[in-house]
From TrEMBL:
Residues 5-275 form the CN hydrolase domain. Homohexamer. It is an enzyme of class 6 (ligase). It comes from Toxostoma redivivum. GO terms for cellular component: cytosol. Its EC number is 6.3.5.1. It holds the Pfam family CN_hydrolase. This is Glutamine-dependent NAD(+) synthetase. One of its GO terms (biological process) is 'de novo' NAD+ biosynthetic process from L-tryptophan. GO terms for molecular function: ATP binding; glutaminase activity; NAD+ synthase (glutamine-hydrolyzing) activity. Keywords: ATP-binding, Ligase, NAD, Nucleotide-binding. Pathway: Cofactor biosynthesis; NAD(+) biosynthesis; NAD(+) from deamido-NAD(+) (L-Gln route): step 1/1. PANTHER family: GLUTAMINE-DEPENDENT NAD(+) SYNTHETASE, NH 3 /GLUTAMINE-DEPENDENT NAD + SYNTHETASE.
Length: 694
């Protein structure tokens, strides 16, 4: 009898609404799976239309074009003799469902709607879809005419069922269902399902990958079985980077691991596994077998097809492997770099421009671009024709081959140091040296003339000339003068992004990169519409602490010695006058809190969901060795005042790579008011009462 089943899963770099490109990548994955002997192929969640369609799911066009792609898949010889499991939205009885469509040899076997929808953090599936709430129930789905003409079927099963092939039984989960406390694989496994599949649209968050891997392995550790997970990869049109990590697990151990970060648009994992290993593993788990005898059975769709061959005794099977996780510094180096590459090639721009100040944040952004250049050269060296074609189009040279990251960086990356009378020679030198070491095209300019012109207009109109605090001006005057410098830098950044290549006799324009970190955004320590305003920001979801560690990683791995002095220098905006030629302004003094404290505030506010009073109660214990309750109260009050005063800045925050679970991104992740009563009278009174009691 057949024992060894060969299955395939994949990570695809799909793009929302790119139906032609998505279809081509699906076909490629099927071709690779078949060439490696697979009899079943699993793809990512909603792979036909792309996961990130958002409100386009409401449009009938999205449904129509998804069925048109399905028609192409069904009628193609490439999909013959392999069970194909693809994801798309389906309208059933006027209700939209997030579905798996499973087909074989021009026949749809089952349409399986998602049962548990992701609706937290960046996910809003309940906005567009309805969960299937009829457990173990199947209905008739009437196929559109274009599909009927291909399959010869008028109706197909729609609902919560499993597939029974000649040699085994398969059951599907979709993304969130793995994370749910009552995951379907539990009951399916008790009912004899041996192969579980999961099509995901799971995005990268720092330090998250191990959680997903642990969930997959634990799914079969207690119950036995084979678990196959597919995931989207890349930037499909917004702030998220889907980080692949396709995997296959059996009986609690990983047997195949896909990459978390790569520039390959199509990655396919194939594994051959022995079903008897599942059966023998389950045989001695008496608690499982007792529960199985009482389980309610799933409807079974019989499939006249086998995933194994009759004579497979000599077929080699896969052995367990040790999963290798990236360090957080490697994740920062690779994830945002891949996201930038997707954004660059899909926006059809000619490169990036970064205002490089010589500080940690802009230097970290520059290092991420340099890492991207490394990834491009490595992919081309490994024979990736897609990356080579994209690189040639970006640099406008059909014969170009990117081999040296510094040389490629020179072509696609422009850095610009924008000096003022308040800038020190140290930051200028640091920016110049880093630009030389990564190879960027570097520009030095001075903004004093523009600043004087803008302030001069104000003086002519009002008859008043504002002054910095050190020159006798008020804090209002000083802040306004600092903001003028910051905003002029933003205007110049966009001017140079549009016309630098024109001035150099080259085609195209540049994307402006921002470099505000997640902690500065949370505190609002940035000028609205300054250089934090850009096209995209690769570090906007990363903490200052992680960025410092990342800079150290780049120093060691890329041999960028310029980063030593950047790391040792205190962070500063350099917007106030120098004192004896030296910087007198520092970020942490300006903010009234340290970056380490900000990270703690951010995690308590967002992850622990703490308001002012709850945050105070938690911190008096966390900080009991270093602060009195009254000092803690003062710190908490100061944070919430500053956070609420500046929350309006989040409404115009540059789209940033999502990497941190306490991001204050107002677009979709962190939904809060932006006009607060900043006195927090009731909340602060509760804190004061507790302080007095203590």
């Amino acid at each position: 009898m057949g024992r060894a089943v060969t299955v395939a899963t994949c990570a695809l770099n799909q793009w929302a609404l790119d139906f032609a490109g998505n279809l081509e990548r699906i076909f490629r994955s099927i071709d690779i799976a078949k060439s490696k002997g697979a009899r079943y192929r699993l793809g990512p969640e909603l792979e036909i239309c792309g996961y990130g369609c958002s409100d386009h799911y409401y449009e009938s066009d999205t449904l129509l074009h998804s069925f048109q792609v399905l028609e192409k898949l069904l009628e193609s010889p490439a999909t013959q003799d392999i069970i194909c499991d693809v994801g798309m939205p389906v309208l059933h009885r006027n209700v939209r469902y997030n579905c798996r469509v499973i087909f074989l040899n021009k026949k749809i076997l089952l349409i399986r709607p998602k049962i548990s929808l992701a609706n937290a953090g960046n996910y809003r599936e309940l906005r567009w879809f309805t969960p299937w709430s009829k457990a173990r129930h199947v209905e008739e789905y009437f196929l559109p005419r274009i599909i009927q003409e291909v399959t010869g079927q008028e109706t197909v099963p729609f609902g919560d069922a499993v597939l029974a092939t000649k040699d085994t039984c398969l059951g599907a989960e979709i993304c969130e269902e793995l994370w749910a406390p009552n995951s379907p694989h539990i009951e399916m496994g008790l009912d004899g399902v041996e192969i579980f599949t999961n099509s995901s649209g799971s995005h990268h968050v720092l330090r998250k990958a191990h959680t997903r891997v642990d969930l997959v392995n634990s799914a079969t550790a207690k119950n036995g079985g084979i678990y196959i997970l597919a995931n989207q990869k890349g930037c499909d049109g917004d702030r998220l980077y889907y980080d692949g990590c396709a995997m296959i697990s059996m009986n609690g151990e990983t047997v195949a691991q896909g990459s978390q970060f790569s520039l390959d648009d199509v990655e396919v994992l194939v594994a051959t596994l022995d079903l008897e290993d599942v059966r023998s593993y389950r045989a001695e788990i008496s608690s499982r077998n007792l529960a199985a005898s009482k389980v309610n059975p799933y409807p079974r769709v019989k499939v006249d097809f086998a995933l194994s061959c009759p004579d497979d005794v000599a077929v080699p099977t896969c052995m367990p492997i040790q999963w290798r996780h990236h360090s957080p510094e490697e994740e920062i180096s690779l994830g945002p770099a891949c996201w930038l590459w997707d954004y660059l090639r899909r926006s059809k721009q000619a490169g990036f421009l970064l205002p490089l100040s010589g500080g940690i944040d802009s230097s970290a952004t520059a290092c991420i671009v340099y890492s991207m250049c490394h990834q491009v050269c490595l992919a081309v060296k490994n024979g990736n024709a897609d990356v080579l074609a994209d690189a040639r189009r970006i640099v406008n040279d059909e014969t170009y081959i990117p081999e040296d990251p510094r040389e490629f960086c020179k072509r696609v990356f422009t850095t610009c140091y924008m000096a003022s009378e308040n800038s020190s020679q140290d930051t200028c030198n640091r920016a110049k040296l880093l630009a030389e070491q990564i190879g960027s095209y570097h520009i030095n300019l001075n903004i004093d003339a523009a600043v004087k012109a803008v302030v001069g207009i104000f003086s002519v109109v009002t008859g008043r000339t504002p002054r910095f605090s050190v020159h006798g001006g008020s804090s209002r005057e000083s802040l306004a003068l600092q903001n003028v410098q910051a905003r002029i830098r933003m205007v110049l950044a966009y001017l140079f992004a549009q016309l630098t290549l024109w001035a150099r006799g080259m085609p195209g324009g540049l994307l402006v990169l921002g470099s505000a970190n997640v902690d500065e955004s949370l505190r609002g320590y940035l000028t609205k519409y300054d250089c934090s305003s850009a096209d995209i920001n690769p570090i906007g979801g990363i903490s200052k602490t992680d960025l410092k560690n990342f800079i150290q990683y780049c120093l060691e791995n890329f041999q960028l010695t310029a980063l030593r002095s950047i790391m040792s220098a205190p962070p500063t905006a350099e917007l106030e006058p120098l004192v004896d030629g030296q910087v007198a302004q520092t970020d942490e003094a300006d903010m009234g809190m340290t970056y380490a404290e900000l990270s703690i505030y951010g995690k308590l506010r967002k992850i622990a969901k703490a308001g002012p009073y709850s945050m105070f109660c938690k911190l008096i214990n966390m900080w009991k060795e270093i602060c009195t309750p009254r000092e803690v109260a003062s710190k908490v009050k100061h944070f919430f005042r500053m956070y609420s005063v500046n929350r309006h800045k989040m409404t115009t925050l540059t789209p940033s790579y999502h990497a941190e679970s306490y991001s204050p991104d107002d677009n979709r992740f962190d939904l809060r008011p932006f006009l607060y009563n900043t006195s927090w009278a009731w909340q602060f009174r509760c804190i004061d009462k507790q302080v007095n009691a203590l």
